[in-house]
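User: Some background: our group keeps a shared notebook of sequences we're curious about, and every so often someone picks one and asks for a predicted structure to add to the entry. Today it's my turn. The entry only has the sequence so far, pasted here. Could you supply the structure so I can complete it?
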Amino acid sequence: MQDHTSPASLENALAVQKYGVGQPVRRKEDDTLVRGKGKYTDDFNLPRQGYAWIVRSSHAHGVIRGIDTEAAKAMPGVLGVWTGTDLVAAGYGPFTCALPLKSRDGTPLHQTNRTALMTDKVRYVGDPVAFVVAETLVQARDAAEAVTVDIDPLPAVTDPEEAAQPGAPQLYDHIPNNVALDYHFGDAEKVEAAFKSAAHVTKIDVINNRVAVVAMEPRAALAAYDKPTERFTIQVPTQGVAANRTGLAKNLLKVPHDKVHLLTANVGGSFGMKNINYPEYICILHAAKALGRPVKWTDERSTSFLSDSHGRAQKVHCELALDADGKFLGLKVSGYGNLGAYITGVAPQPLSLNIGKNIASVYRTPVMTVDIKTVLTNTTLMGAYRGAGRPEANYFMERLIDRAADEMGINRLTLRKRNFIKPAQIPFNASSGMVYDSGDFQGVFDKALEISDHANFARRKKESRKNGKLRGIAVGSYLEVTAPPNVELGKIVFENDGSVKIITGTLDYGQGHATPFAQILASQLGVPFERVTLEQGDSDLVHTGNGTGGSRSITASGMAIVEASRLVIEKGKRAAAHLMEAAEGDIEFAGGQFTIAGTDRSIDIMDLAKRVRDGKMPEDVPSSLDVDHTSGPVPSTFPNGCHVAEVEIDPETGVVQIVRYTGVNDFGTVVNPMLVAGQLHGGVAQGIGQAFMECVSYDASGQPITGSFMDYALPRAQDIPHMQIGDHAVPAKSNPLGTKGCGEAGCAGSLSTLTNAVLDALSELGVTQIDMPLTPERVWRAIHGAKAKVA
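Assistant: Of course. Here's the predicted structure to add to the notebook entry:
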């Protein structure tokens, strides 16, 4: 026992100041990862493992007439060759989409029921039709080339609008016009009435370009099967082991959960793409069971362009109705979303539901309708990509506002100010159906203008003109509705070695979870920050959780850790009362110390954990301070911000340079500002990629023409500007920490400001429309097209 002024008590107080919530603590992972000591899936190997290679279709659409594997089976080192017929016989389930989405007529989302290997038709270039396992990777690749696939080609369609028209090539007999979901949201009658009363209506057509995820680490997997226990084990990069294990066991392998052990180590990026199970995993799990030895598969960049899910890909028409003063009256969005050839994961949601949830943003928009057809095409399947509909929705809204301001002769800043939701109106019932619990949108906006020195832009524009450059600026607000309510695991274990382990269902694939989660636990329990460890990658330990996605980690796991900490304190009070021979009601807890009220008698939480674990406690006293807790549903949060971008354009070449970038954000309580800044920088970088260079393209026959980094450009260090970051925090009221998600906000804020800044620079030439990516060629053509019109 000790008193409040003991060295241990003082040490705890200092530690909370240094490592507590709000401190820019360096990431626990940095030393390991920067030194190259991280361990990714391809780094794992098992004795006697075979190597798999996938045989893929070279046709975008066609009927499979036969697959000849005999020559491949006879090649050196080949352990086995399998086709879709073999996997069907094994009884595996199809890949489906579990979202309860319905079309406007009430019918449920059409399922494509994808099998791991195709048996009837192929529907995109890269569709898997067979696989080979051999003693070495080279032998597996050689044998795969010997597999002969007889396919009768069919006409292909890659554009969602074209695919939805009568007479277009049909991918599935049971899905008319390839429309898997005819999504509708909103009250059409009220919207039509609002538009009829409008003084002005602004209309734009926008293409939201398809992007490839291209995470630094390609997908990989290592599978094994233990015959005595009938248990599968798979090492694979995921965004959460619990949910992926459930999907594998229940839906695909058709075995009890405890018959699947899923492990995830370090993950080199994902951005939504690795949050689903893929056909390759079923293939190697099947082979491991059939061969009685482990099987490994590692993708390569060229095939990952084909087999990894893509993001974005929409063609929409947007309309904004305004009164004579520029007040928003109503909003319409209609168009098409490209699902690719199959529906898995949450693919339809970013293209439909999330547009409606996010497009109202920070503005008073009384009524809206969203009408989007999600359409199947002969292209790689679609999936979640950083923001998953939220950046798109904000992009559409901000493009509308700038166009409306120009058409009505109202200053763009003034138009936004007239329509901001005011703090006094919060909680605010948005037309999206969301209820915003917090926010100061005008305050964020004003701070962004101040930090960006917006007032002196005219001077900078004049300097650019002297240098022969066109200069433009854009100011854009955004608001995101983060992931919907889901339960989360908050497990706390006091280990024998004196460490404290957090076990939770989100998973770090670059975000740096170990540090902020340790900061939260240290603040809640006063345990030493450096002794806190994190476990997220073993499904035997992480039995619950929905993984990382939708900017939910700090809110979901944070809430679970806070609630679990309270349970630890409850157990600790009972144990401390017993050890100090006091009434439980007299025990107080603060700063890591359990104290008898009104006395100097106390015991440190780490010492208490050791004593109850090592000692023999009565039945009514906890034998450990460990807690295995699952939180209730964690509500969505509403991160928001205002970004300001300035660009210079060389009119001779069309090259755009980002010369200034500012982002002011409301992420509620910020646990670690350094990590938040890193997340924002990364999101803006991906926004720059989509805005200026990234675009997956197909030719008329469905062949991809951007299948490598020779044809698909990513931003480099020289393309990323210095960013001024500001914070204007209004804590959320929906979770105990007051946090709001931050991981995808950089994309949400950057797409519109970058594009609108380019349009602002080009506006003096009369250019009013341009679509991403704003490549030098596209910008140059816009400039010269405008000059030709004048001439």
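Suggested note for the entry: Confidence is low (pLDDT under 50) at residues 1-5. The chain has 22 helices and 30 strands.
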